[in-house]
Design goal:
616 residues; mainly beta; Immunoglobulin-like; 8-stranded mixed beta sheet; 7 helices; 34% strand; disordered N terminus; disordered C terminus
Length: 616
């Protein structure tokens, strides 16, 4: 978001191609740019975390690009109250730019210096001690760190480590995040990940996009298309605990344009009539599940799916070329991303709207209702300026080796069963390995699972609760193999870092997914898996996995690991013994995963099934 205290362009980090195109633009288009800038200025005073007014035109976040394989950024972590007294949070650059999009390429380094500008925590704030800290040794509601969601980067201190990295008020911490040379090109994001306080920080708005550039080399279909980044966040509702029963649990915003209950005054997306655009959509909400559909005069429009959770679809099969397929709507869990090609309405369309449909999250779940998000407005002289030139000019080169190649045919070395469960009256949430005792997360817990670099595992995860849960794995992606024991057809076996598990109905089989986990990469050490409804994660639904170095491997001496501590139950450990190492009650799971029935991807479920709380 631009800084209004500077001159018109000095507060905006624009790529040279944007400046060049702006100089050639018409007066009408230039006026629209100025209008968008004025909207920002009207919202800005001395507020470090400004927001747009409802009904504003959607503009793009500022873009910061790596140069010579390095992107250096300084962030301040700030807070301010909104008009209802609810806290906002944000990351800003030295010139006040809020939540810029960070562009890197595979193999680049992101050097991010973070200063915590929050006030010191209150005396009655919950404090948690951290053993073997990376930074401060205690965390509280004023602490911060940064998680680079979806990136396949190292969990070591100074990179994507969230268990023990703590930056307290007045402190500064520098990350040097090394992106692997085989990182899939696509949409990722960043947000705070302090246990117990993640939901408040993310709902307050402290988040932004990371784009690994180069998708044109894997999926040429997007070459030359205007690219539009759409980031959907949830936030506290003004009515708080006094909302009607049918009110949404949380309000939504689109690129910081709020869409508020009960009026649902939509954000405005401006497009050229009939133009094709590449939309890069992130549901960077803390808790809200989205089921997005683009409607023109009440008719569903095709979405040409290009990438899910940062990975171009179909690109990991050895061909190193992305595929695409059409859907008329898409379910995106909180923290999930979907990238797709759309066509703008023509001049005959009278009502074009992007909506999210009602999702039945269960008797104990949140209300995620039908509601509009944005109205599509066609203008004759091109879409709202910055939306069409987000990325640097890219020469289509030969595709590079893809990170997850061969996973579908790899030998499975271990099978495990895990489950989500709750003690709802006490607001306690658990994710547990079958055979272990449900345990609330604590950063000082020992790892619940120990595995070895090079392993390929299949995990069946059950939902034994009366509300949806959203499984997320740090550091790696997984391949969705089955839902409820029914195998996924090969064409739908996409690589994800988020998957939705519908709620258990109180009787009958537990809803489940079977995931193929890829530990063949270089990432070793301790990292976490959890439900990405952040209220649930904050209240305990997270656990630690430890990946040990492969014997005599190149990384065998690169990470110092603390020994497991006693008192929290045994870790579920498996190593490669012949064809399979079955742990816990996995033998039944193995039989279940060999069924030959049909299913569809969790992000592409049939809406009727979602509304009914069923699984396909």
């Amino acid at each position: 978001m631009p800084a209004c205290k500077e001159t018109l362009f000095s507060g905006i980090r624009m790529h040279p191609e944007v400046v060049k195109s702006l100089k050639k633009t018409s007066l009408t288009t230039a006026f629209l740019f100025v209008l968008a800038f004025v909207q920002v200025c009207a919202a800005q005073t001395n507020d470090p975390c400004p927001r747009y007014a409802p009904g504003s035109i959607v503009t793009q976040p500022a873009d910061l690009f790596s140069s010579n394989a390095v992107l250096k950024v300084d962030f301040s972590y700030n807070t301010s109250p909104d008009e209802n007294g609810n806290p906002k949070f944000c990351f800003t650059t030295l010139d006040g730019t809020e939540s810029p999009t960070l562009h890197v390429r595979p193999g680049d380094h992101l050097i991010l210096k973070v200063k915590n500008n929050l006030p010191t925590a209150s005396a009655n704030s919950m404090v948690m001690d951290v053993n073997s800290p990376c930074g401060a040794s205690t965390m509280n509601d004023s602490s911060v760190n940064v998680h680079y969601h979806g990136t396949n980067t190292s969990p070591t201190c100074g990179q994507d480590e969230v268990i023990r990295t703590v930056i307290n008020p007045g402190e500064t911490f520098t990350y040097d995040l090394a992106f692997p040379s085989d990182e899939p090109p696509g949409l990722y994001w960043y947000h705070p990940h302090i246990h117990g306080f993640a939901e408040a920080a993310v709902q307050g708005g402290a988040s932004g996009a990371i784009i690994v550039d180069g998708i044109e080399s894997i999926q040429p279909a997007v070459t030359g298309l205007p690219q539009r980044l759409l980031l959907m966040r949830d936030q506290l509702t003004p009515c708080g605990d006094n909302c009607p029963e049918d009110a949404p649990a949380w309000d939504m915003s689109l690129n910081y344009v709020p869409v508020l209950y009960p009026q649902f005054k939509t954000a405005i997306i401006q497009m050229t009539p009939g133009a094709r655009e590449f939309w890069r959509v992130g549901n960077i909400s803390a808790d809200t599940i989205l089921d997005l559909e683009l409607q023109y005069d009440g008719h569903s429009q095709p979405l040409e799916i290009i990438a899910l959770d940062g990975v171009p679809v179909g690109s990991q099969d050895g061909t190193r070329r992305g595929k695409s397929f059409a859907r008329n709507h898409i379910l995106i869990p909180p923290a999930g991303r979907a990238e797709f090609i759309v066509s703008a309405p023509d001049k005959k369309v009278k009502n074009a709207v992007l909506v999210t449909h009602q999702v039945d999250t269960g008797p104990d779940g949140d209300v995620d209702p039908d509601r509009p998000i944005a109205t599509i407005q066609t203008i004759a002289n091109g879409s709202s300026l910055k939306s069409s030139t987000l990325t640097r000019k890219t020469k289509i080169g030969p595709p590079w080796r893809q990170r997850f190649e061969g996973l579908g045919n790899a030998k499975v070395t271990a099978r495990r069963k895990l489950f989500f469960s709750e003690d709802n009256p006490d607001s306690q949430f658990f994710i547990t390995v079958e055979g272990q005792t449900p345990t609330l997360f604590n950063p000082n817990n020992p790892p619940a699972i120990v595995t070895t670099q090079g392993s390929v595992e299949e995990w069946t995860i059950e939902n034994r609760a009366l509300e949806n849960h959203e499984f997320h794995m740090h550091q790696i992606h997984f391949m969705l193999m089955a839902r409820n024991g029914i195998p996924v057809p090969a064409k739908d076996r996409q690589f994800l870092d988020m998957v939705d598990l519908p709620y258990w109905k109180g009787s009958g089989p537990y809803p489940s997914v079977t995931l193929r986990m890829d530990f063949r990469g270089p990432d070793i050490g301790d990292f976490v898996y959890h439900c990405h409804i952040l209220e649930h994660e904050d209240k305990g639904m997270m656990a630690i996995i430890r990946v040990l170095p492969a014997n005599n491997g190149p990384n065998a001496n690169s990470t110092k690991l603390d020994p497991p501590s006693a008192g929290s139950g045994p870790a579920s450990e498996s190593h490669n013994h012949g064809n399979h190492a079955l742990t816990g009650s996995d033998s039944a799971e193995a039989k279940e995963s060999r069924s030959d029935h049909h299913m569809t991807s969790s992000m592409l479920m049939n809406r009727d099934s979602i509304k009914a709380g069923a699984t396909p």
